Amino acid sequence: MGKVVIVTGANSGIGLALCERLLTEDARLRLCLACRNMQRAEATRAALLTSHSGASVDLLHLDVGSVRSVLSAAREVKAKYGRIDFLYLNAGIMPNPTVDIKALFRGLFSRNVINMFATAEGLLTQQDSPNSDGLQEVFATNLFGHFLLIRELEPLMCQPGRTSRLIWTSSSNARRSAFSIDDIQHRHGKEPYSSSKYASDMLSLALNKHKNHQGLFSSVTCPGLVMTNLTFGILPSFFWTLIMPIMWLIRIFTNTFTLTPYNGAEALHWLFLQKPESLDPRAKYHSLTSGSGTNYTEPRQMDIDDEISETFYSKLLELEKAIRRKVSERNAENKAYQRYLGEVE
Ligand SMILES: NC(=O)C1=CN([C@@H]2O[C@H](COP(=O)(O)OP(=O)(O)OC[C@H]3O[C@@H](n4cnc5c(N)ncnc54)[C@H](OP(=O)(O)O)[C@@H]3O)[C@@H](O)[C@H]2O)C=CC1
Ligand SMILES: CC(C)=CCC[C@@H](C)[C@H]1CC[C@H]2C3=C(CC[C@]12C)[C@@]1(C)CCC(=O)[C@@H](C)[C@@H]1CC3
Question: ipTM score here?
Answer without folding.
Answer: 0.97
